[in-house]
């Protein structure tokens, strides 16, 4: 049976982790992704890269931000507010995971 621990949350979504199987559940908007640790890191790296390269130009034009997934038939689309909240959620989650790792090592 899964027992969940909240890693981070905001008004757009949350990241929780099962203490037993260690899988992450990343919920944002009406989407939930179930990810391994490596999948979560890869996903958050992809968001960080897109944010660094395209957020400012998309912000100026008001265009949606599209994110391709590992599934070639699924693309995620975000408006500016959704994207920023997802980006902030993932950045905070990575920070919290890193802090928890440091505490566990002490």
Beta strand %: 25-35%
Q: Assembly type of the shown chains?
A: single chain
Poorly predicted tracts of residues = none
Q: What is the overall silhouette? A: globular
The number of distinct β-strands equals 6
Specify the number of helices. Answer: 2
Give a brief rundown of this model:
The chain has 106 residues and is an alpha+beta fold.
Explain how this protein is built.
This protein is an alpha+beta fold and 106 residues long. The protein is 48% helix and 28% strand. It is built from two helices and six strands, in the order ββββαββα. Helix 1 (37-61) runs antiparallel to helix 2 (80-105). The mean pLDDT is 92.
Fold blueprint:
Blueprint (H helix, E strand, L loop, with lengths): L3 E6 L3 E6 L5 E5 L2 E5 L1 H25 L3 E4 L6 E4 L1 H26 L1
Antiparallel strand pairs: 1-2, 2-3, 3-4, 5-6
List keywords for this structure.
106 residues; alpha+beta; four-stranded antiparallel beta sheet; two-stranded antiparallel ribbon; 2 helices; 48% helix; globular
């Amino acid at each position: 049976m899964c027992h969940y621990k909240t890693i981070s949350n905001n008004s757009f979504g949350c990241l929780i982790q099962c203490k037993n199987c260690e899988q992450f559940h990343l919920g944002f908007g009406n989407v939930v992704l179930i990810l391994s640790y490596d999948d979560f890191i890869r996903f958050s790296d992809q968001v960080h890269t897109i944010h660094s390269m395209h957020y400012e130009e998309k912000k100026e034009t008001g265009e949606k931000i599209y994110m391709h997934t590992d599934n070639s038939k699924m693309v995620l689309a975000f408006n500016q507010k959704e994207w920023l909240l997802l980006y902030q959620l993932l950045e905070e989650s990575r920070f919290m995971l890193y802090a928890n790792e440091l505490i566990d090592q002490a």
